[in-house]
Specification:
Blueprint: H1 2-8, H2 13-16, H3 20-26, H4 28-39, H5 59-62, E1 83-85, E2 88-90, E3 100-108, E4 129-132, E5 139-145, E6 151-158, E7 168-171, H6 172-178, E8 186-193, E9 228-235, H7 238-250, E10 256-261, E11 268-276, H8 279-292, E12 298-301
Parallel strand pairs: 3-7, 4-6
Antiparallel strand pairs: 1-2, 3-8, 4-7, 5-6, 5-8, 9-11, 9-12, 10-11
C-alpha cells in the first residue's frame, strides 16, 4: 500500500533506483497527506475506502479462490527495513515464526488494483494477500474470523494498515472468504506460518454457491465470543489505574474496568472501556478519548 501511493505520484521503486532508501524518508510527508485524505473518506460503518470496493467478478467465483500455499521465499530487498509513518517507527520482523496477535482486520479493493505493493509487486484484489505493518515481506499468515470461525491463509506482501486500531489489511478475496465484506471489518486472530512446519494452516470453510455467506453472514459461532475493548492505560500501580477509571466514569465514557494482567514479571493494571458492540463504536470512542486528552488508546480483542 505504501508503494501504491508513491507509484501514483510517479515515485515507485523502478524510478527511484539507488536513491530508494534515502528518498523514502523525504516522501513520508507525501505519504501521510495522501493516506490521511483517503482515510478521511472511510464510512463510519467500517466499510471500504471511497471509490474502492468490490470488483466485477461474481462473488461465487471469488469465494472459490484457493488459499495461499506457504513455500520458502527469500525476503524482498525492499519493504523489510525500519520505516516511519505518522511519526511512529516500525521494525519489520525477520521471521513470522511464533507470531500471534488478535485485532481488527480491514480490507482494500479495486482502488489499489494494479498498484505497487511494498515489496514491489502489483496488487491483485483477487489473490489471497494481505498488508501488515511488521510481518516479513513476503511471509504467510493464517487469519481467523473470531466471530464465525472461518479461516484463510494469505501471503503478506504489503505494508499497512496505518489507520488506528487496525491489525491487518486483507485483499478483497480474503475478506470475502472470511465473511467480512458487508461490515468492512472483523475481529480476527493472525498466526504467522513458516513453510515446512507441521501446523495446520487454518480451516477453510466451504460456502455453498449462491449463498450470501461471503457478505458477512456467520456460519458458526466460536465457543467463547470475542470481546472488543479500547485500552486507555496500563499501570504498575493499582491506585493510578483506579483513579483513571473513576475519571473516565465521571466523564460518562461508559463501562470502564480495570483488568489485572499477570503474564509478565510485573503485574499490570489495564484500564479498558467496554466491551464494545462494534468496530465503529470503538473508532468513535477512540476519537473521543483522544479529544479528551488521552493519547495512545488502542483496540484490544480478547
Amino acid at each position: 500500500m505504501l508503494l501504491a501511493i508513491l507509484d501514483s505520484a510517479g515515485l515507485h521503486r523502478g524510478r527511484m533506483g539507488r536513491n530508494w532508501r534515502r528518498r523514502l524518508g523525504h516522501l513520508s510527508l507525501l505519504f501521510l497527506l495522501v493516506l490521511e485524505a483517503a482515510c478521511s473518506t472511510i464510512p463510519t460503518n467500517g466499510g471500504y475506502y471511497e471509490h474502492d470496493g468490490p470488483g466485477s467478478r461474481p462473488l461465487t467465483e471469488v469465494l472459490n479462490v484457493p488459499n495461499a500455499v506457504p513455500k520458502p521465499l527469500p525476503l524482498s530487498p525492499i519493504g523489510n527495513q525500519p520505516y516511519t509513518v505518522f511519526g511512529k517507527t516500525y521494525y519489520p520482523l525477520k521471521s513470522a515464526a511464533g507470531y500471534r496477535a488478535r485485532g481488527i482486520a480491514s480490507w482494500y479493493g479495486r482502488q489499489f488494483g494494479g498498484k505497487f505493493t511494498s515489496d514491489g509487486e502489483r496488487y491483485n484484489m483477487y489473490a489471497m494477500t494481505a498488508a501488515h505493518r511488521t510481518l516479513p515481506l513476503p511471509s504467510y499468515a493464517r487469519v481467523t474470523n473470531l466471530r464465525n470461525g472461518r479461516s484463510v491463509v494469505v501471503r503478506v506482501n504489503d505494508r499497512g494498515p496505518f489507520l488506528d486500531n487496525r491489525l491487518i489489511d486483507l485483499s478483497y478475496a480474503a475478506a470475502a472468504k472470511l465473511g467480512m465484506l458487508r461490515t468492512g471489518t472483523a475481529l480476527v486472530e493472525v498466526d504467522g506460518i513458516v513453510p515446512g512446519d507441521h501446523r495446520k494452516p487454518g480451516r477453510e470453510t466451504t460456502i455453498a454457491a449462491g449463498s450470501n455467506a461471503g457478505m458477512g453472514q456467520a456460519t458458526a459461532d466460536t465457543e467463547s465470543p470475542p470481546q472488543l475493548y479500547l485500552q486507555v492505560g496500563a499501570f504498575v500501580d493499582q491506585y493510578h489505574a483506579e483513579a483513571l477509571r473513576q475519571k473516565l466514569k465521571q466523564a460518562d465514557f461508559g463501562q470502564v474496568c480495570v483488568q489485572t494482567s499477570r503474564s509478565r514479571p510485573t503485574v499490570l493494571f489495564r484500564v479498558r472501556i467496554g466491551p464494545l458492540p462494534s468496530v465503529a463504536d470503538c473508532d468513535r470512542l477512540a476519537r473521543r478519548v483522544a479529544a479528551y486528552g488521552i493519547r495512545g488508546a488502542y483496540a484490544v480483542v480478547e
